[in-house]
Amino acid sequence: MQKATQDTPQGARSAFATPRRRYFTKSHAFSIRMRHMPTRPRPKLTLRTLLLAFALICAIATLANTFVVMFTTQKAELVENALQTNEAYAARIATSVEEVLSSELDRLGFASTVIGRAFTDRSALHDEAHRLLSQDHSFNSVLIANAEGKIIASAPSSLQLDGQVLQRRSPLTRREPMISDAFKSLAGNLVVFVSHPIFSRNGEYLGLVGGSIRLEQKNTLQALMDLNIREDGAHVYLVDSHRQVLYHPDPERIGTILATDPIVEAALQHSYGSMRAMNSSGNEMLAGFASIPSSRWSVISQRPLSNIEATLEATTIKVAKGILPLGVFGLLLIWWLGVKISVPLSRLAESAKRLDAPESYERILAVPADYFESWQIRRALLLGANLLQEKIGRLNQQAHSDPLTGLANRRAMEETLALWQQTLKTFAAIAVDIDHFKRVNDTYGHAVGDEALRTVAQLMRQASRPDDLVCRVGGEEFLLLLPNGSIATGAEVAERLRTVIEAAELDTVGHITISLGVALWRAGESMSDTLERSDRLLYQAKAQGRNRVVTEKELSAVAQS
C-alpha cells in the first residue's frame, strides 16, 4: 500500500492530508493491486479430499497386497492338501479292491481243489458252479472249462454256456490265477473274468474255474466303489490296463476307453502318487492314484482345480465384505481429522503398503504420534501388521513342521544347523529309529502306526531340554540336536529317552523300543559327517540287539578292544 501511495503525485505529503484524502488513497491502492493480481480458477479440491483420496489408494493397495498373499498362499496349501487327500483316498480304495479280488481268487482256489477231485463227475461240477454263484453273489456267472477251453459246467443255467468255447485263451495258457481286463462276454455283456487253474492230484492240468463280474449292472466292485462317493466335487473311477473304465459315478462312462490322459498314463505306470494335470476334457485336475497289484488296474481320485478356486474366491469375498465396513469408517474418520494429520498420515499410508514386510512393525512404530488421532491410526496399523505377521509366521511354521508329528522337518533342521555352523556352536546329534516299526504297520495298519509316531514325538519333546531341536527326518527316523551339548550330555538324554519310550504303553501297539546313536560336532568338522556318524552309531545299536544307545565313545572303546 505504501508503494502505491508513493506512485501518486501527492505521495510525498500524504501523511498531512485530510482524513477524506487518506481514505481515498488507500482504496485506490487496493484497487490497483486487485487489478494486477493474476486471475486463477478457484481450486475445487480441498486438503481433506486429497487426504481421503490418498488414504483410499493406500488402503486399496494394502488390501490388494494382503489378498494376493492370502489367496496365493491359501491356494498353494489347498492344492497340496487336495493332492495328498486324493492320493490317500485312492490308496485306501485300491487296498479295499485288492482285498475283494484276493478273496474271490481264494474262493476259486478252494473250489478248484474240490473240482480237481471230481472232474469227471458232471453233476458234481454243476453243483459246485451253482454253489459258487450263490455263495455271496459276487459273480454274475460261474463256469468250469476243460484244458481245451470247452465249458463243461456253468451257472446260471439260463445263460446256456455249456458246450461253448472260451473267448480268451490267456487263462488256459498261463495256468495261474488271474483277473482279466474288461471284455464282451459270449452273452454280449461287458465283464471281468476272475479265474483259477484246476489240477489233478498228480499235478495234471485239467482246466479252469472262473466267475464273471458284469460291469454294467450292480456288482461287488460297484457296491464297494459306491461307498466312496465324494461330495466335494471330486470323483473316483477305476480303469484297467488298457485305459478301459471299469467303474465311474456316471454309468454311461463304464466300458469306454479313455483318450490319452497324463493322469491315467501316470496311474498305469506307477504304483501310487499324485499330480496336477489337464484331463482329456481339458479341465485342470488335482489327482491321486494307486494301483491294484493282482489285476494291474488303477484307482484314480481327482478333484477339479476350479472347485478349489471357487471355494477360495467365496472365502475371499466374505473376508472383503467383513473388512469393508471398517474400511469405510476409517476413510470417514480420516476426512474428519483434517489438515493436521497430513504428514503422519502420509508416512503411515506409505508404511501400510508394506504390511507384509518383516520391518513393517518397526517402521510404523517410528512414525511420530503427536496427537491422539495419529496415535489411533498408528495403533490400528500396528495391529494389522502384527496380525499379518502372525499369519505369515503361522504359514512359515507350517512350512518348517512335520505335518504328522508337529516336530521340526528337514528344512527347519538344515536352517538351524547352518546358523549353528556360522556361530560355531557345538552340538550333539542323537539319531533315533523305532525298532521293528514295519511290523507295527503290517500288523495294526498305517493309522495305528501314525498314532505311534505321534506318541513317540510327544515323548521325545517331553524328554528333551527346552533349547533342544527335535526333528522327524523320515518314516520312523528322528533326530535330536542338543546345542552346546557333549557326548556325556547326549548319552544321558538319549538313555533317558530310550527308558521313557520303553516304559510307555501305547494304545493297541503296547510297548515299543528305540535304538539311538550319539555323535558330537565340533567347529571345523563337516555337519553332514557328524549326522552320518550318528546314523552309523544308530545302526550299530541295531546290530547289537536294538533298544540301546551307542555313542562315539562306546564305539571307539569297542574298536580298540
What percent of the residues sit in helical stretches (DSSP H or I)? 40-55%
Structural class: alpha+beta
- Mind telling me the CATH class of the domain at 410-560? Alpha Beta
Strand content: 15-25%
CATH level 4 superfamily of the domain at 410-560: Reverse transcriptase/Diguanylate cyclase domain
Low-confidence stretches: 1-27, 557-561
**Rg on CA atoms, Å:** 40 Å
Number of strands: 16
Task: Give the count of helical stretches.
Answer: 17
Based on the structure given, which CATH architecture of the domain at 410-560 is correct? 2-Layer Sandwich
Question: Can you walk me through this structure?
Answer:
The chain has 561 residues and is α+β, with helices and mostly antiparallel strands. Among the domains are: 2-35, no CATH class; 410-560, Reverse transcriptase/Diguanylate cyclase domain (Alpha-Beta Plaits). It has helices spanning 2-6, 19-36, 47-117, 122-136, 170-174, 220-226, 262-269, 305-337, 342-352, 360-365, 372-399, 410-422, 437-444, 446-463, 487-503, 527-543, 552-560, and strands spanning 141-146, 151-155, 178-179, 183-184, 190-199, 205-214, 235-239, 245-247, 272-278, 284-292, 297-304, 427-434, 469-474, 477-483, 514-521, 549-551. The strands form three sheets. Strands 1, 2, 3, 4, 5 and 6 form a six-stranded antiparallel beta sheet that branches. Strand 13 (469-474) and strand 14 form a beta hairpin. Helix 3 (47-117) packs antiparallel against helix 6, helix 3 (47-117) runs parallel beside helix 9 and helix 14 (446-463) packs across helix 15. The longest helix has 71 residues, at 47-117.
